[in-house]
């Protein structure tokens, strides 16, 4: 399965992707996670992208495309992949089409998790993530059993540095570069829209039934 997840920041892409990865056994490739890991490890890539992530601006296309192409060439991506947060611009979408064509593969579906913009600020400012295993929580909508502690691995929960009101504002503005991708994939006949305003498990049932149909 070759799948991409589309949706505004906070729509629930990472939350759904983790469940798809666990049930369907395909790698969850999040460009945001890859950039954050590089920043934490202070690699040359991390140093190059840090300012973009901190401010909420998009990392330049050329660099992002190179990172994704390298990741897609790794062995585990042979059985398929779930791209989360990529592509985010038309240039990235075209580059992905080219890479897939070179690999002799096609995109099965672009899952568009649609939510109204009004719900996003509360989702993003309440988001907490486990430092050790990356599981996503929300202070109100998906709280851990014990405040500040991961249910799965007892790791410490932290708030992303770009989940502040100021960076969120920039990220929502930057989404104007991503919005045209909905039509891009609709025109390719692969867009499937999911109502992301429902509770997490309801969204997942919709996602799951779409993916199960692809497997038949
Ligand atoms: P994205 O990857 O699209 O930026 P996340 O999956 O990280 O979004 O979700 C953003 C925040 O909203 C997280 O704190 C998550 O727990 C919460 N969340 C995700 N899906 C829902 C939902 N359907 N209803 C309420 N909160 C949600
Ligand atoms: P995310 O974790 O998807 O919310 O991404 C966090 C940040 O990483 C974004 O605000 C951008 O700065 C950067 N980023 C992630 N994916 C991309 C992408 N495909 N293109 C450009 N920048 C990206």
The CATH class turns out to be: Alpha Beta
The CATH architecture would be 3-Layer(aba) Sandwich
Uncertain spans, ≥5 residues at pLDDT below 50?
A: none
**H and E string:** EHEHHHEHEHEEEHHEH
**CATH fold assignment:** Rossmann fold
Oligomer: single chain
Helix content: 40-55%
* Structure class: alpha/beta
Beta-strand content bin? 5-15%
CATH homologous superfamily assignment: P-loop containing nucleotide triphosphate hydrolases
Q: Average pLDDT across residues?
A: 96
Total domain count: 1
What sort of overall outline do the alpha carbons produce when their principal axes are compared?
Answer: globular
Ligands, ions, cofactors: adenosine-5'-diphosphate, adenosine monophosphate
Spatial order of strands in the largest sheet: 2-3-1-4-8
From the N-terminal CA to the C-terminal CA, the straight-line distance is 12 Å
Tally the helices: what do you get?
Answer: 9
Largest sheet: 5 strands, parallel
Q: Based on DSSP secondary structure assignment, what is the total number of beta strands?
A: 8
Structural Rg: 17 Å
Describe this entry's structure for a reader.
There is one protein chain. With 216 residues, this protein is of the alpha/beta class. The protein has one domain: Rossmann fold, CATH 3.40.50.300. It is 46% helix and 15% strand. It has nine helices and eight strands. The protein has a five-stranded parallel sheet, with helices on both faces. A three-stranded antiparallel sheet has the order 6-5-7. Strand 5 (127-130) and strand 6 form a beta hairpin. The model has no long low-confidence stretch (mean pLDDT 96). The chain binds adenosine-5'-diphosphate and adenosine monophosphate (AMP). Adenosine monophosphate (AMP) binds at residues 9, 31-32, 35, 52-53, 56-59, 64, 85-86, 88, 92, 162, 171.
């Amino acid at each position: 399965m070759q799948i991409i997840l589309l949706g505004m920041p906070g729509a629930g892409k990472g939350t759904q992707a983790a469940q798809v990865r666990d049930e369907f056994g395909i790698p969850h490739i999040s460009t945001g996670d890859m950039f954050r890991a590089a920043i934490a490890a202070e690699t040359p890539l991390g140093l190059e992208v840090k300012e973009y992530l901190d401010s909420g601006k998009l990392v330049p296309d050329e660099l992002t495309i190179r990172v994704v192409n390298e990741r897609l060439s790794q062995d585990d991506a042979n059985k398929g992949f779930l791209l989360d947060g990529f592509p985010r611009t038309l240039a990235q979408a075209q580059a992905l089409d080219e890479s897939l064509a070179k690999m002799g593969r096609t995109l099965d579906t672009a899952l568009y998790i649609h939510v109204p913009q009004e719900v996003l600020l509360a989702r993003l400012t309440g988001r907490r993530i486990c430092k050790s295993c990356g599981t996503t929580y929300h202070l109100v909508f998906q709280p851990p059993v014990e405040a500040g502690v991961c249910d799965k691995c007892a790791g410490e929960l932290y708030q992303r540095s770009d989940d502040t009101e100021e960076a969120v504002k920039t990220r929502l503005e930057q989404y104007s570069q991503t919005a045209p991708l909905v039509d891009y994939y609709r025109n390719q006949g692969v867009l499937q829209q999911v109502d992301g305003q429902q509770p997490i498990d309801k969204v997942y049932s919709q996602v799951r039934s779409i993916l199960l149909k692809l497997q038949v």
